[in-house]
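Dear U.,

For the methods section draft, I wanted the exact inputs and outputs in one place so we can describe them consistently. I've listed the two proteins in the order they'll appear in the manuscript figures. Please don't edit the token lines directly; just add comments below if something needs changing.

First protein:
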Amino acid sequence: MLNSFIASLPFMDQARADLVINGFFPIVKAAVLVSIPLAIVSFILGMIIAVGVALLRVTPVSGILHRVLLAFVNVYISIIRGTPMLVQLCIVFYGLPAIGIFIDPIPAGIIGFSLNVGAYASETVRASILSVPKGQWEAGYTIGMTYLQTFRRIIAPQAFRVAVPPLSNSFISLFKETSLASVVTVTEMFRVAQQIANASYDFLPVYIEAAFIYWCFCWVLFMIQARIEKRMDRYVAK
């Protein structure tokens, strides 16, 4: 029945219906086993970088080492934000072997995505920290807290609530951008779709199917994002 329904759609026929049905599970399997884990691992590592960079930039400058590190992260952010992610991935996977550094496809993808997320998310984290009124810092110092104690107990929870929506959007964007990993031979869901399309020489239905599957996964992520935001609203209200 499903086969007949798909074959009845515009620009479809029985052969295309069979192609779409046979390609569905391989694409979904690649999404579950490769694309989503790749996005999760890259996002976690990217957030570790982002928090470190953001804290370095919001902490009052003290000493030459701090100034050197600050200059380094400013250059890092400028380079990442000023170059396409595709170019960054190609440099990691195809460029580094020229100087004797060889990285497997999945680790190369993780490195490229993590560095990209770290640069962009650091701006989100920094803005979230700066959005907390300075009086909150002063209140912490007044009751005898150190800088780190004030940040951890007072500033971070408030900044986290502000950062949740943009960071959630960043993760959803990262999941979609894992399709770029196909360029460095990672067999994620879009590369599987490419392989199916190349074997059949019929690209339109397979790519539309891949787009539909991406949309379905993103819709689930949108719902998760909404639930997280509601929970954070209730937490802040308490």
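Second protein (the one for the lower panel):
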Amino acid sequence: MSITRPLTPGMVAEGRIDVRNHRASANRLWQVESVMHVIGSGGVSSSAAECVTPA
């Protein structure tokens, strides 16, 4: 799963994300494989992560 959200500094590779109140196929615990934090000008910052279901 790919997820992009407002800047979330605590989102780190090998971390976990618990998705709730979304589509049934997405509601579960995910492991973060990679994450990129973007701090843009004008106060627009985001975090984007690639996630997999944990083994």
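Candidate sentences for the figure legend, describing the second protein: The beta strands are 2-6, 16-18, 29-39, 45-52. Residues 7 and 46 are 4 Å apart (CA to CA).

Thanks,
Y.
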